[in-house]
Sequence to fold (262 residues):
Amino acid sequence: MVLTIYQVDAFAEKVFEGNPAAVCPLIEWIEDENLLKIASENNLSDTAFYVVKNDCIEIRWFTPTIEVNLCGHATLAAAYVLASRENFKENSIIPFHSIRSGKLPVRVNKDSFTLDFPSDEIEEINLSDELLKATNQNPISAFKGRSDIMLVFENQIEIENLKPNLTQIEKLDARGLIVTAKGNECDFVSRFFAPKSGINEDPVTGSAHTTLTPYWAKKINKGDLIAEQISNRKGKLNCKTVGDRVQITGKAALYMKGEIYI
Fold:
């Protein structure tokens, strides 16, 4: 079996920025064991697989160790591949659908892509000892969403200087840990750590912004938000809440195209 594979830098203006994702178009679904082996071999934070159906495009995402419910940057990368490399010309909306997360349409703009994801539901939780031990900085509040825990800090410099305690984070009852603060030159900044999913620090995490966007939209009373994930690679996102959905816009750049032999 020979499969096409792309590697795309998502939420990036050019290669070597943003978050790299692998994308594998499939004619039909193959065994889950092989999907996970491919993702593990790729050794990127996420690999997206998709199958074009009559009424939708089924999409799934795998880290090197597990299948995940939702991945923003790999969805953006898959949209880029469909629109720019696989000749998907039917309309300006790519109708992704995930069994785990429902309808995930992506609007194709001139040079960017807008993800339409379900907004997270978060509740404030106590700053327990296990959360206080998760980093070397002192958060001012904590929230729990469907998948992740989010710690809010006083300012951007604390996020820049933050050192994660990965052993402690891996013990948390969550997919990963989001840390965030108001930005100096944007509305908010963040970082994301998910050692339990095989990702110590994710460069740019689209799905985390389904948690971040509604929080900051309410916090600063603003609809359209400019966000930056300040990992080493960095990435910029334009975010907006629309009812119970979050729209996240970013660009992508192709790094590599190849073939997989199984």
The mean pLDDT is 94.
